[in-house]
């Protein structure tokens, strides 16, 4: 019976990695090119790579400001239609950057990637993820790039998951694909004992369990959205929070009994 594994030439198992890049990692076109290189590196190391992106820099805030300057209480449906546009820009530019660097990628909206949600505009919950097209792209040897923070409701309307929702999109995609790890790329080297941009003596936490991470998220640590950690805990999905500006390992958030050494795509330190 086919166990669903594939093997590299040296008989090690090909890992399936979901990488999520936040707004600060794709703030301008130079950053997008840098991220494209990193994705290709991961792919060339023998992994399958599916990517979830946020909107570039402050795009989402700018879109909201534009809406507010027209109507301080815009229709919720139109607001979600507007906000989903941000991720559509970053996903297509990132896909182009991967092409221009000599590799291949397909970008998908939340709806194309099979993110089915309930009807709560602006705060939708994911009901199911059916990532057939993403899987197909990976089978063809391409990178799949998925717009974060969005899905589609039963009526076929675009929905958004609430601010910071791309982390949750990434974990949900990783779970639906059966990925080996979900890497969350940000602008700091992982989760710290305090904000390293403010407290210089803050220490990086190399490994942490879901419960402790949930406590930190609910205490206002902005590194990961609370819902994303809850989702990862529910399905035992290993998370690796790391910087897209360095190759250092970040913070691993792991289910009990999983050895950090078993997580793919770690940097040898
Ligand atoms: N772009 C959305 C936001 O700024 C989603 C995300 O970044 O996770 O909230
Ligand atoms: Mg954002």
Written overview of the protein:
The chain is α/β, with parallel strands linked by helices. It is 34% helix and 19% strand. The protein is built from seven helices and twelve strands. It has helices at residues 29-44, 59-70, 76-100, 132-139, 166-177, 210-218, 226-235, and strands at 16-21, 48-53, 105-108, 115-117, 126-129, 143-147, 150-152, 158-160, 181-186, 207-209, 239-243, 251-254. A hairpin with a 5-residue loop joins strand 7 and strand 8 (158-160). The model has no long low-confidence stretch (mean pLDDT 93). Bound molecules: aspartic acid and magnesium ion. Aspartic acid is lined by residues 22-23, 54-55, 60, 86, 148-149, 163-166.
């Amino acid at each position: 019976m086919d166990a669903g594994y594939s093997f590299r030439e040296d008989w090690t198992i090909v890992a399936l990695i979901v990488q999520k890049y936040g707004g600060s990692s794709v703030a301008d076109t130079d950053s997008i090119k840098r991220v494209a290189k990193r994705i290709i590196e991961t792919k060339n190391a023998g992994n399958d790579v599916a990517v979830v992106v946020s909107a570039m820099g402050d795009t989402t805030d700018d879109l909201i400001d534009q809406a507010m300057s027209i109507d301080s209480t815009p229709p919720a449906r139109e607001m979600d239609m507007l906000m989903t546009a941000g991720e559509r820009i970053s996903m297509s530019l990132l896909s182009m950057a991967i092409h221009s660097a000599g590799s291949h990628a397909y970008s998908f909206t939340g709806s194309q990637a099979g993110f089915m949600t309930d009807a709560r505009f602006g705060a939708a919950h994911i009901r199911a993820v059916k990532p057939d097209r993403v899987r197909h792209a990976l089978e063809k040897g391409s990178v799949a790039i998925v717009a974060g923070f969005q899905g589609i409701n039963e009526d076929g309307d675009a929905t958004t998951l609430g601010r910071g929702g791309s982390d949750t999109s990434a974990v949900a995609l990783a779970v639906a694909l059966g990925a080996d790890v979900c890497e969350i790329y940000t602008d700091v080297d992982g989760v710290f004992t305090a904000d390293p941009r403010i407290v210089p003596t803050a220490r990086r936490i190399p490994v942490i369990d879901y419960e402790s991470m949930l406590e930190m998220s609910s205490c206002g640590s902005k590194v990961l959205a609370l819902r994303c950690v809850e989702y990862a805990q529910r399905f035992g999905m290993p998370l690796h929070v790391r910087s897209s500006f360095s190759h250092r390992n970040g913070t691993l958030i792991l289910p009990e009994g999983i050895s950090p050494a078993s997580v793919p795509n770690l940097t040898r330190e």
